[in-house]
Amino acid sequence: MREKKRKSTERVGISATETQERGLPTVVFAGNPNVGKSSLFNRLTGMKQHTGNWTGKTVAVAEGICHTEGGDLRLVDLPGTYSLSASSPEEIIAAEYIRDGEWELAVVVADATAPERGIGLFLQVLEITPRAILCLNLADEAKRRGISVDTEGLSHDLGAPVMLVSSRRRSDVRRLAAELLFYTGGTLPRKLAEEGKSRETGERLEQPTLTDTAAEEREAINSRECVGATISTAKEGEECEDTEIPKRKDTDGSIYLSRATSLADMYFKGGGRRDMKGLLDRLLTGRLFAFPAMLILLALVLYITVTLANYPSALLALGFSYLGERLLALLDYLNSPALLSSFLYDGIYLTLTEIVSVMLPPMAIFFPLFTLLEDVGALPRFAYVLDAPLRRAGGCGKQALTMCMGLGCNAAGIVGCRIIDSPRERRLAILTNALMPCNGRFPTIILLSGIFLSVGGALGGVSTALALSLAVVVGVLATLLLTYILSGTVCRGDSSFFVMELPPFRAPSIGSILLRSFLDRTLLLLGRAVVVAIPAGAILWCLSTVTAGGVSLLGHAAGFLDPLGRVMGLDGVMLLAFILGTPANEIVLPVAMMGYEAVGIAPVGAEIGEVLLAAGWTPITAISCILFSLMHWPCATSLITVYRETGSLRDVIISVIAPTVLGFLTCSLTSLLAALL
Amino acid sequence: MSDEKRLSEIKVGEVCRIAAVDTVGRAGRRLADLGAIKGARISCVGASPLGDPRAYLLLGSIFAIRNQDAALIGVFCDE
Predict the structure, then answer these.
(1) C-alpha distances out from residue B3 to A569, B8, B38, B76, Å
(2) pLDDT value at position A26?
(3) Residues A596, A573: contact at Cβ < 8 Å?
(4) H or E stretch including A473?
(5) Per-residue model confidence (pLDDT) at position A211
(6) At residue A247, what are phi and psi to the nearest 5 degrees?
(7) Is A571 left (phi over 0), alpha (psi -120 to 50) or beta?
């Protein structure tokens, strides 16, 4: 019998929560990646947790409370693992928690349509504890594919309870919750207690009846003293001795998989063999269609984002302008000195509302769309198709996914790099993420292409989406280039092992997922906007109000930067705008407007187009500006995120210098070429 | 009895049985954890546009595996 070591929960990073102190029974969820475990977990706990239809999404341990009629349970959701003898960090954490953590019941979630691995994992868990139940999820998928499951027979053979559920059916979820409560010895549901029912399976949980083969295998495993400690002790470098049982040629996992396969053959009937011949697969991964299909999908997502965002953006602008008038009236009423009023209104309020009204609507639409693609199963296909080019550049397929996330928000993309196992490749993805234009840069790109490159107008939304898509493609190419350069210099090393599960396409659970994603994102972004906008607005105000020799500091700075800006095909004002736009890319153009006013180019309140033309802008200037918008240092939030994720100041510096140098060179080259032609 | 081939060499659509997996390195062990064990049925169900990685059906799930890693798996394909 193994002792449960309390301290390893701290080692694993799961601290005793309030719930544990309250004494709620703990149920731990384990299972293969991509079987809907997190979905099930969410339904049981009603928690806001992000799940996606591709392997390796849950990289943190999640906790939640499940409320049932008879009592509450504390649920812990472990990262998906293929086997307890596996070697990636998440799988090590999961294995350690099961072996050493404090819990009352383990639930292994498996895919009813492909149960072998899940049953194999369940068998491994059974070796450690009899307090485990097998939960076959995706029952609806199984039914759709004509798969029938003999849960009674399987349960009898395994010597443990087996449930067949669909996380989409509320009744199934409730039934599961009641079972969990029952097996953890929690308060019996009052109904059952009243009816005085007893359950045979309850007894079986305490004394599992194993078949001969299973008993033999358990002997074999238990005789290898340190099997349970393989992962932790191997990490700490201790010795692991085998006893008299001859060492098997296959790894630990194979014993269980062999048995699991025979169990599956016996108790799961029907269903065809999976293939990649379906229409969607042929479109997304076929030799001819894959790249065009992805481009079209990209353009579609951008089109929807941009078009749908216009309405709430306009509404927000209206609302803020109304509020702004109220604010001015209030300041007037309070007899606030003109300078203070200006500081509060022009400086802080306007900057804040600018950022929010520009930033919020697109992101509130983009991320749910992204989640939808995740849910459906499209994202792993992107990684599959893009692994080859990314690998040639020194990265890996999963970087494509972090790049997609970066399209919404670079900070989110950088955090998302956690899905990449190899530290070297993760670093590459982090350092290059800023080359993907986040939602905040869309307005700059759209406005400039609208004014100077005749995008928009008659075909409106479509041409805008295409222009944006083109910009994104440039960003992708820049990312490949920079990845290649960095992997030859600061991120040297070999390609790591890469395997990605391609799950079947599944209908997305639109309602709850989208709503949750929408709420999560908007609240997060509002918070960020406020934190960033206030200092940014304050600084801007100071720079534009404080004057020296009749010209504001803003004007002076613009003049100072002008020579450098001209080399790049821009001017001092624009370069300054990019620098001052570091807190949030959304304010780059507004700051540029302020800059042009400060140097006296255009009257206050003129339209952007007029101002830029008056400043001497040409289509080439616009192109340079768009290019630099794609290739410059990360925004403030991203920089902080890079530091948090890498823990290295050196990496933050690289993340600033690398894209900027690339952008500078690209812009300079462009304006040089334009001048020569 | 046909010769043992590398998994990376089989044709799209071919169904084979695994003969052995080179589990010395990390890659082989990870593949074994996924179900690449002796006797298991494995088939190639597709290839990505540039030919690498390819998609394999193993134990009811489809995985994208790079050719250099698929080469670690030896298979018999006489079905």
Answers:
(1) 64, 14, 15, 6
(2) 87
(3) yes
(4) helix A461-488
(5) 40
(6) -65, 130
(7) beta
Where residue A658 falls (left for φ over 0; alpha for ψ -120 to 50; beta otherwise) is alpha
C-alpha of A69 from chain center: 34
pLDDT over 50 at B19, yes or no:
yes
Q: Residue A111 and residue A83: Cα distance in Å, rounded?
A: 15
What is the predicted pLDDT for the residue at A60?
A: 62
Write the burial class of residue A192 (CB in 10 Å: 0-12 exposed, 13-18 middle, 19+ buried): middle
The position carrying tokens 């210099």 is A489
Neighbouring CB atoms inside 10 A of A372's CB total 16
Looking at residue A47, its pLDDT comes to 57
At A272, phi and psi to the nearest 5?
A: -90, 180
Helix (H, G, I), strand (E, B) or coil at A148: strand
Closest Cα in chain B to A88: B30
For chain A, the distance separating the N- and C-terminal CA atoms, rounded to the nearest angstrom, is 80
Flag if A114 and B64 touch (Cβ within 8 Å): no
CB atoms within 10 A of CB B1: 5
Q: What is the pLDDT of residue A422?
A: 87
Closest CA to A68 of A24, A16, A131, A102: A24
- In angstroms, the CA A359 to CA A345 distance is 20
Q: In the prediction, which pLDDT does A363 show?
A: 84
For residue B67, give both structure tokens.
Answer: 């050719």
Pairing mode, strands A551-552 and A547-548: antiparallel
Question: Is A262 in the B-facing interface, judged by CB distances under 8 Å?
Answer: no
Contact call for residues A386 and A372 (beta carbons, < 8 A): no
Whole-angstrom distance, CA of residue A184 vs CA of residue A37 = 19
Token pair 């060499």 is at which residue? B9
In the 8-state DSSP scheme, what is residue A585?
A: G
Low-confidence ranges of chain A (pLDDT < 50): 1-21, 48-59, 186-251
Q: Rounded to whole angstroms, how far apart are CA atoms A148 and A412?
A: 41
- Helix/strand/coil for A147: coil
Residues of A in contact with B60 (CB under 8 A): 111, 113-117, 264, 274
First and final C-alpha spacing in chain B: 10
Answer whether A146's CB lies under 8 Å from A173's CB.
no
How close does chain A come to B1, measured CA to CA in Å?
A: 23
What's the pLDDT at A53?
Answer: 37
In angstroms, the separation between the Cα of residue B23 and the nearest Cα of chain A is 8
- Residue A587 exposure: Cα atoms within 13 Å on the Cβ side: 31
Nearest CA in chain B to A253: B33
- The whole-model pTM stands at 0.81
- Tokens standing for residue A295: 């481009």
User: Which residues of chain B have a Cβ shorter than 8 Å from any chain A Cβ?
Assistant: 23, 26-27, 29-35, 37-40, 45-53, 55, 57, 59-66, 68-69
Nearest by CB to A500, from B38, B45, B63: name it.
B63
Partners of A504 on chain B (C-beta within 8 Å) are 62
CA distance B13 to chain A (A): 9
pLDDT at residue A58 in the model: 42
| pLDDT of A11 | 31
Measured distance CA(B47)–CA(A342) in Å, rounded: 62
Query: Is B33 within 8 Å of A502 when comparing Cβ atoms?
Result: no
The dihedral through the CA atoms of A137, A118, B43, B51 has a sign that is positive
Q: Angle formed by the axes of helices A252-267 and A116-128, to 10°?
A: 120
| A387: chain B residues, CB-CB within 8 Å | 48, 52-53, 64, 66
Pairing mode, strands B61-65 and B73-76 = unpaired
pLDDT at A459: 65
